[in-house]
Fold:
Amino acid sequence: LFSAYATYGRWVGYVRAEYQHAPSAPALSLTTRTAIANLALPIVPSTPPATPIASVNQVQLLDAYFGINVSNFQITFGQQSHWWGPGNGGPMMFSDNAVPINMFRIDRVSPFKLPSILGWLGPMRTEFFLGQLAGGQFLLSPLGFIGQFGQAFNPQPIIHGQKVSFKPTPNLEFAVSRTVIYGGPGYPLTLHTFLRSMFSTGNENPGSAAKPGDRRSGVDLNYRIPGLRRWLTFYADGFTDDQFSPIAYADRSVWTAGLYLPRVPMLPKLDLRFEGVYSDNPLGGRICCGFFYYNATWRAGYTNDGNLIGSWIGRDGQGAQGWANYWFTPKNRIQASYRHQKVSNQLLPGGGTLTDAGVQADVWTSSEL
Structure:
């Protein structure tokens, strides 16, 4: 891994790259490929071919952007990562699980207050980005079903997002966010279609020429519990599909939530963090079987170059994570972690379970090493 940054007056630049290696692997079995084709909400139109997985030996450029600071706004262009959430395991709406997206971004770097009575919302920040995804292979458009295995269609869809954050009290921070995927063959990007994807509230059938886009609206919050501010913080984030708020549409929403104890009573050098997450909504309602992170028009779903932009839990799953850090000094610690993930048998035949645990340590032998 290599990273570097530079500043000059108002200008800033950042680059991060890593060397990647993975051995080759045989093609997926016919049973596996058939299960993929027969998902309750299928991504591909037929059984994928028996294509072996090639080995990888490459240096990949990740974050690579330049920008300028203008009147408390930072304007940047290039490949950039996002982390829209307070959790440690991964936000539901936007995480760095996928490779960075090539985008134009405007970020308010210092908070400001609204005038008059709206000042009760406290310091606030805003953010906007417009980028282009990569790797999409299948699309249901007004031109019909487009795509073939192993070949990305052209042009690839765009993605844009907005986030507004507030801090009305010293203990409470919350934010609202929205992302939309739009474009590709049969979906021209014009000022009219862009504004429709930004402001439309209705929806259309998959493949319709008037389709406004693959839309998600999110909320996240961080709350330090009064009386226990030194000991306990609650946080959560979630999103809903094609609706304006995950709070108003609980049966069309998914969530992750956590508790953070920066100091454990009687063990001041120990901190604990626990998180739970689900994408198989327990309320049922109008959704089922892998609905979230999926779209019937843009079949790559909520991905960039094949990697999920949202939470590690994926489609139709539930899980939990925990971390415990013991700090010997402000720089030296040992960490134990645990994660459990379960995929619903409504999505995959027989379902699936994954459990892992780990231990790691950070040790500074001197100020340089």
